[in-house]
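Re: the 253-residue chain
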Amino acid sequence: MSAPGESFWAELPLGRGVSVVTKDANGLAALVKPAGVLSHPNTRDDEPRALLTTAYTLDGEFYEWTAADGTKRRLWLLNRLDSATSGVILVAAEAELAAAIRAQFKRKQVRKIYHALVFGTPRQPIELWRDLLSIDKRGGQIRAGARTGHIPAESRMSLTRAGRKEPKVSLVRLEPRTGRSHQLRVQCAKRQLPIVGDQTYGDFSANRAFAKIAETKRMFLHSLETSFDYEWRGQRTVFSAKAPLPPEFEKFL
C-alpha cells in the first residue's frame, strides 16, 4: 500500500485549532493539539471537541470518515494527551504503520519532551525523579498517586527559566523515561512544584489567583517535542516533530 498523497492530509476533518506540523513519506504525521481538545471522543457528543471531528473506533483506535469523493478514510491515533495538555500528538494513515510505531512506544524507544509552568522553583537545576505510582482507572476517570504505589515512574527535570514576577513560577523541561498515566503531573506535585492550572493534582487556591491574572484556566503542560527513528519496509526513517511553546507560557517569566 502506498502512502497517502497531499490531498489526504489537506482534507482531514481537523478539530478546533488542530494543525498538521509534520509528516513523512510513509504516512506518519504529527498534529498539534490545543489545550481543551480531546485526543479522541468517548461518545458521539464528544466529536465536535476532539482531535478530528468525526467518528472514532475505540477498539481499533482510529478515526473514520467519508472523503469528498465518497471513499472511506481512516487515521490511527498513536498516543494520547490529556485534554488539558497541548502539543505534539502522533497519527498514522495505515494500520500496519500504526502497529509498528505503537511497538516503538512499548519498547520505550520514543523520546518525548514536555515544558511545564510550575509554581515555585526546583531545588536543583537538574534532577532525576524516580517514584512508585499508584494508578486507579474507574468509570473513565484516571487518578494517580505517588505515596503508596508500586508502578515505577522516572523523569528527568531541568530548569529552563525561573520567573522574576509574582506569582513565582518556573518553566521546567520534563523528559519522561516511562509513560505512566498523569506521571508528570503527579511527580511535579509531589515535589511541591504543582503545574499551573492542574485541577486534579495542583494548588487549587494558587490556580484560582493565577487564572484571574492570566485570564485563562488552562493547564500549563505542553508536549514540546517527539522524536525517534524506526524501520519500515526495509528502510530506516528518522522522525521528529516539535510544537512551538504557546505564548501564554512566556507571559509570567
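The longest strand covers residues 126-138.
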